[in-house]
């Protein structure tokens, strides 16, 4: 194996960094996992430099064996960060040490690339203007034109860009496209289901998706995302090129993102839209039957409770079965002609209705079906897998050596909860020097963090406050929030379990602290709120789950993190409650396995917003006394960074005032 330690040292030197023991230990563990064929869970705390910690042994393996390694990140944004920052640094280091430079490629899902068929054959917006896109865009921007004209300008600009990409042999990646909305992008991209396929598409030879896949097949390091990894697992390994090892970054999000990818939705508006699309090729009777299924589904949804559906005799499964049978007939009729691209795409759309309806109608033990309601979209049915552990065990860990890494993988002081969620069993775990017994053998390692949490941060648990209730925040808790923000002089990130709680706290603090600037999620776009919070240290930002993870605000801007309550799953979350019941029915502890593990992960992520670099100091204030009074509290505390802990509010207030030079 090429010397990964030398490559890591060269990479760290290139960015003028310093050697980090945790990063070195991580690189060594990843290299050993590859050599031994043992799966690895590696917790690497904030500041470890985990990207280089796994990239350098991965690239060393590529050089030595000419095998391919796939890296899967949680989001497209993380993909972009690796592509533009970490991978070029690592490749330079590999070249410096070995004289070789492996190829790296980024691979995304189909809808992230423009579709030439949709862009060139897309419809009436082609005729919106005879002037250039720049002139049309200027006209739309300076006038009070309607949304249609603005969309037309946007789509025309996108289509011109698509042609430029085709001319230069580019990939037409959405991240490189002109500014656009989701509606605009939909005019130049295509859902996976509706793709005609290279052989049938008139522009197959120029296909951007195929070009991106060809680049991936020609690369030794391929960076993708959790969603495409899920698709690869669910469809027999057809989405990713063959690889000898897999690294999953931000692995604490893997189960959630795999679940999302495997979740299907069915709504009356979707059925109506697909039915109208198919009408051209159907006789009157079948067309009428298909259209009427939209109303039948709407009636069934209206009669359903907003909860999990478990009885086959309930209105929803009955309506879904009828829709399944009608859509099967429609697919049969449409599929008789295969040389009409529009008809072929309509067939694919109906097939999706058929499959989702069939999945809902069957009420399989492996699925959870439920009904939701939104003010904008109305009622809809969802179906999701009860558990994705089996899928991951068989289609990921059973196929290739896999490394999972995150800042939060050890929950309650153990790797076993996280391992169990992805299909790795406690009996599969082996000791550091042990030999693997089968393809599911795994190890867990915590390489620590360069931060001294006990000296840099305080965990204040407000033991004297009443436990949170269901009727909003009580006066004592609101007063505690205001006092802490006053002591910190702003500089506060408030993490709340609900939008209602965040708004209630913001309203109270604005009234009690009129000189403080309190921003609340919903006041503006989240990106704008985060920018203001970062730029204005005395500003506070209150929000919900989208702030618990991924917000990186080092320095004096964030010296206080307030968490209003332990983030257990909502009692009306059908999927989480179904998973809890499944564990209970199997003789386990569903509360600890599902609810407490979910809460521990979010708490660790939320508390981790405080210390982002070695100079940071501050307080995490947990306003839910159950962290120290409930039996499960020790499990949750063991999942948090090793802050110095107190239940004395005066200590927290004095510490915050000292940070701003008041004491």
From TrEMBL:
Cite the Pfam families for this sequence. Answer: DEAD, Helicase_C_2
**Domain of life of the source:** Bacteria
Q: What one GO molecular function would you report for this record?
A: nucleic acid binding
Q: Which residues form the Helicase ATP-binding domain?
A: 9-302
Query: What's its catalytic activity?
Result: ATP + H2O = ADP + phosphate + H(+)
Keyword tags: ATP-binding, Helicase, Hydrolase, Nucleotide-binding
Query: GO annotations under biological process?
Result: nucleobase-containing compound metabolic process
Q: What is its EC number?
A: 5.6.2.3
What is the enzyme's class at the highest EC level?
A: isomerase
Report the SMART domains cross-referenced here.
Answer: DEXDc, HELICc2
The record, for SUPFAM superfamilies, names: P-loop containing nucleoside triphosphate hydrolases
Please give the cofactor(s) recorded in the UniProt entry for this protein.
[4Fe-4S] cluster
Family, per entry: Belongs to the helicase family. DinG subfamily.
Q: Which PANTHER family match?
A: DNA REPAIR DEAD HELICASE RAD3/XP-D SUBFAMILY MEMBER, REGULATOR OF TELOMERE ELONGATION HELICASE 1
The name of this protein is ATP-dependent helicase DinG
The protein's organism comes out as: Tessaracoccus flavescens
């Amino acid at each position: 194996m090429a010397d990964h330690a030398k490559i890591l040292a060269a990479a760290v030197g290139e960015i003028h960094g310093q050697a980090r023991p945790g990063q070195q230990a991580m690189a060594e563990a990843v290299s050993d996992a590859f050599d031994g064929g043992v799966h690895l869970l590696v917790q690497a705390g904030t500041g470890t430099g985990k990207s280089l910690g796994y990239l350098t042994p991965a690239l060393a393996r590529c050089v030595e064996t000419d095998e391919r390694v796939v890296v899967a990140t949680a989001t497209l944004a993380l993909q972009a960060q690796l592509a533009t920052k970490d991978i070029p640094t690592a490749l330079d280091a590999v070249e410096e040490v070995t004289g070789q430079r492996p190829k790296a490629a980024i691979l995304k899902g189909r809808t992230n690339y423009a579709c030439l068929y949709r862009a060139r054959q897309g419809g009436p917006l082609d005729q919106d203007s005879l002037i250039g896109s720049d002139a049309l865009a200027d006209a739309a921007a300076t006038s009070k034109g309607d949304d249609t004209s603005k969309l037309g300008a946007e789509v025309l600009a996108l289509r011109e860009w698509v042609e430029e990409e085709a001319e230069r042999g580019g990939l037409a990646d959405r991240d490189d496209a002109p500014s656009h909305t989701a509606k605009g992008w939909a005019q130049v991209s295509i859902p996976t289901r509706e793709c005609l396929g290279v052989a049938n598409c008139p522009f197959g030879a120029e296909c951007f998706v195929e070009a991106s896949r060809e680049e991936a097949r020609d690369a030794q390091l391929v960076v993708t995302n959790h969603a495409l990894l899920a698709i690869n697992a669910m469809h027999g390994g057809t989405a990713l090129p063959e690889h000898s090892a897999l690294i999953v970054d931000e692995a604490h999000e893997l189960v959630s993102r795999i679940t999302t990818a495997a979740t299907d939705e069915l709504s009356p508006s979707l059925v109506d839209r697909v039915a109208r699309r198919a009408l051209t090729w159907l006789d009157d009777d079948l067309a009428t039957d298909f259209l009427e299924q939209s109303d039948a589904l709407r009636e069934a949804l209206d009669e359903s409770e907003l909860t999990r559906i478990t009885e086959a005799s309930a209105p929803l499964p009955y309506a879904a079965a009828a829709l399944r049978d009608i859509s099967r007939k429609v697919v049969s009729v449409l599929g008789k002609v295969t040389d009409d691209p529009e008809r072929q795409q309509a067939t694919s759309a109906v097939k999706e209705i058929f499959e989702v309806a069939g999945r809902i109608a069957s009420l399989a033990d492996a699925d959870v079906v439920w009904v939701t309601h939104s003010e904008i979209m109305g009622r809809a049915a969802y179906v999701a897998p009860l558990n994705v552990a089996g899928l991951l065990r068989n289609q990921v860990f059973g196929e290739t050596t896999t490394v999972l890494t995150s800042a939060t993988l050890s929950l309650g002081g153990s790797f076993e909860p996280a391992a169990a969620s992805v299909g790795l069993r406690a009996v599969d775990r082996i000791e550091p020097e042990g030999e693997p017994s089968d393809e599911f053998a795994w190890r867990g390692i915590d390489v620590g963090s360069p931060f001294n949490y006990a000296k840099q941060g305080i965990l204040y648990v407000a033991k004297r406050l009443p436990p949170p209730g269901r009727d909003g925040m009580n006066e004592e808790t609101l007063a505690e929030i205001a006092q802490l923000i006053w002591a910190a002089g702003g500089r506060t990130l408030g993490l709340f379990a609900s939008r209602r709680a965040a708004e209630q706290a913001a309203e109270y603090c604005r009234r009690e602290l009129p000189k403080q600037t309190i921003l609340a999620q919903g006041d503006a776009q989240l990106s704008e709120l985060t920018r203001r919070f970062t730029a204005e240290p005395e500003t506070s930002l209150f929000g919900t789950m989208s702030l618990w993870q991924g917000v990186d605000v080092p320095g004096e801007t964030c010296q206080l993190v307030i968490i209003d309550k332990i983030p257990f799953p909502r009692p009306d979350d059908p999927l989480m409650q179904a998973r809890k019941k499944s564990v209970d029915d199997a003789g386990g502890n569903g509360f600890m396995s599902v609810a407490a593990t979910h809460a521990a992960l979010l708490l660790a992520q939320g508390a981790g917003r405080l210390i982002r670099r070695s100079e940071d100091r501050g307080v995490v204030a947990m306003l839910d006394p159950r962290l120290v009074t409930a039996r499960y509290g020790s499990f949750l505390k063991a999942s948090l960074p090793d802050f110095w802990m107190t239940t004395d509010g005066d200590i927290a207030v004095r510490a915050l005032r000292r940070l701003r030079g008041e004491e």
